[in-house]
Design brief:
Elements lengths: L1 H20 E4 L3 E7 L2 E2 L8 E4 L5 E7 L3 E4 L3 E4 L5 E12 L2 H7 L3 H22 L2 H5 L16 H7 L6 H16 L4 E13 L1 H73 L1 H16 L16 H8 L1
Antiparallel strand pairs: 1-4, 2-3, 2-5, 6-8, 7-8, 8-9
Helix pairs in contact: 3-6, 7-8
């Protein structure tokens, strides 16, 4: 019975020793083994089951994949004295876990060192170049507003760059990397996430943009008003032309009708002159006499002969 207890105790101790000495490393990790705070052996970067001395040795894990650094947006003046807000980010990784453990020890401390190194590099490079160099990445042709053709050539010249944002970010990386190497850190990439004007400059830019758009709108309005007057003028001209042609046609038709009527009257009156005389006399009676008129005529008057003949019947 006593021997079974000893065997059980040995087994438990052996299992405890194996449990405390064995550790695993996966594909995204790397391990530094320390003994009393000092690094022993080479860092374990390959995945698998590993062993260490139980109790006196400790395994410290560090990530092996890419890590993210996000800088705080800062106000930076450019070479042409324009104040802008610059927001940057970077990708980094631990390439020497021993140096990393001995210098910064953990990810939080490493982020602080990145702040101290990348931010000054960004500020240094942004202040070295004009604003347009940090904004543009190439000299591709810009699309300008309609109606701004006369300003196109000066704008192209003003927007041309010699370095560009991509080259500036590469220079930031090259300036920061040597300072990070002693910490076992490799800076993989640095990018400018956003560039914006400070509030005072932004309001000035907005005001200039609004003024330019108002100028373009006013030009369109004036062109539209000119075109409207041109259309109205053409309408008035066409209306007068149509009216004059219609009046001429109407007068021609009226003249022809009056001529035909005159010809018909002449033909009718030529057949019977006495009827013509009788008809004209009746017209004179109608025009000269009404119910309030009084007329004294001689019996020998030509004006009275038709009345006299009518009474004789």
């Amino acid at each position: 019975m006593k021997s079974k207890g000893v065997i059980l105790a040995v087994v438990i101790v052996a299992a405890l020793l194996v449990f405390t000495s064995a550790y695993t490393v996966n594909e995204t990790e790397q391990v530094v083994v320390t003994q009393f705070g000092k690094v022993v052996g080479e860092p374990k970067t390959e995945p698998g089951l590993k062993f260490k001395l139980p109790f006196i040795q400790q395994a410290t894990y560090f990530p092996k994949n890419l890590l993210h650094w996000d800088g705080d947006p800062g106000q930076i003046p450019t070479l042409d004295k324009t104040f802008i807000w610059v927001d940057t980010f970077a990708r980094w990784k631990i390439i020497d876990p021993v140096k990393f453990f001995q210098t910064v020890n953990n990810i939080v401390s490493a982020q602080g060192r990145l702040d101290d190194i990348i931010d000054p590099a960004v500020r240094n490079l942004v202040t070295t170049f004009p604003l347009i160099e940090s904004v543009r990445m190439s000299n591709r042709e810009l699309v300008f507003e309609i109606g701004q053709e006369e300003r196109e050539a000066p704008q192209r010249k003003a927007f041309a760059i010699d370095t560009g944002r991509e080259q500036i970010t590469r220079m930031i990386l090259e300036q920061a990397q040597p300072k990070l190497t002693p910490f076992g850190i490799e800076l993989v990439d640095v990018k400018i996430k956003r560039i914006n004007y400070v509030e005072r400059v932004r309001q000035s830019v907005y005001g200039r943009m609004i003024a330019e758009r108002n100028q373009i709108a006013e030009k369109f309005r004036s062109e539209g008003q000119g075109e409207a007057r041109k259309i109205l003028g053409n309408k008035e001209r066409d209306l007068k032309q149509i009216t004059s042609e219609a009046y001429r046609t109407a007068q021609e038709i009226k003249g022809k009708a009056e001529a035909e009527a005159t010809a018909l009257y002449a033909a009718a009156y030529g057949v019977d002159p006495e009827f013509y005389s009788f008809n004209k006399t009746l017209e004179i009676y109608k025009e000269a006499l009404d119910k309030n008129s009084s007329l004294i005529l001689s019996t020998d008057s030509e004006f009275f002969k038709y009345l006299k003949g009518y009474g004789g019947e």
